User: Fold these one by one.
Assistant:
Number 1:
Amino acid sequence: MSAGSQKKLATRNKSILLQLRYIAGTINLLAVIAVFYFNRPSRSITYILLSTPSFILQYVLESSGLPKLGPDGKIISSGADIMQKGSLFEYCFDIIYLTWILDVLMIVFGSNKVWWAYALIPGFAIYKISGFILPFFKKSGGGAQQGTADESSAGSSTKKDNSGLSKRQQKLKARQEKGPGVKYR
């Protein structure tokens, strides 16, 4: 990674994590005031237990995303790209945002019943895992009869694909499948 891109990544991560700190601090300060001062909701242990994952994930994001600086002020490591699509950091942000939403709803409604929405997290995990596991269970069944039907339909579909191509395109496709005709030394 070049020095310029390391600096860009480091400044982007630092600004995102700074925003995360400010928003988390504000929302949690309001929640603590509502829970301990106004005694809304009456049980504070629920807030403490169910906000803990958010605190842990924010610590993980900060330890992974903040740049490491040397004694001379140069960037040793720019940190991981916490905004990378499809990474686990994306799920960390989702859980943190959901916790903030539930904190605000707890403040507004004054009830711990809003924390039942935290069941969305395991529900989403089951949904994602089921997309991976269910195809293994769908393969069983039919056996030989289904296999012969699939082969006959596959043969007819390749004929359709080739008939839809012009003669020139069919020749080019055949040459590509055949491989290189001339070998160079």
Number 2:
Amino acid sequence: MIHEVDEVLKSLLGGGALAGSGIDVVLDAPTRDWAARRNAPTINAYLYDIREDVNRRQRGHVPVYDERDVVVKRRQPPRWFRLSYLVTAWTRQPQDEHRLLSAALATLIPREVLAPGELPGALGALGMSVPVSVAGTQTESRSLAEIWSALGGELKPSLDVVITAPFPAYPEYDAGPPVTEGAAVRVRTLDDTPTGPEERAHRPRQVAAVRDARRAARRGRGTGGAL
């Protein structure tokens, strides 16, 4: 799932205001050695943090439907994870880097939510919209200065882009068949002799309605009797 989010972000950054510019969009760690090897204008989107958004965690089960709109399986709701990217621009001049960052910001600001049809592979198959946050308040425990220090580079202007993506929970299990009969209670004596006709202790309303309709149909045909 993470690689699909990478693909989404690269596609977003390569389009919009940067469409047709020929600017490279990469996911490499922007270390000092990487910066020394760079020889073309580049947008770097470095994934530096992954953590669950516990506020989105749900309980219970989610039905899985087949092509007939019948529930065939059940599974746990997906877990949501915040993928945080450090987006930076790399050119020979700071002014050019600022222009690239401005173009990236203009591209990402309108894309607050990505529809399922815009998402690739298994991410799109979940049928859920994915929120995107850009340059918001940083909530991760590590500061950007600490991240740059860990990378061995100097602090640069950057955009903090967070994509919160669902990750499917496993396993799935088969759903039971639909209920078509009510519960029945049969009473027998100690010598296993029936004491009388069975008593219906519980009958779901929808089941009772079906049985009553069947009785009415049988009476209409002159057959009578109960099912």
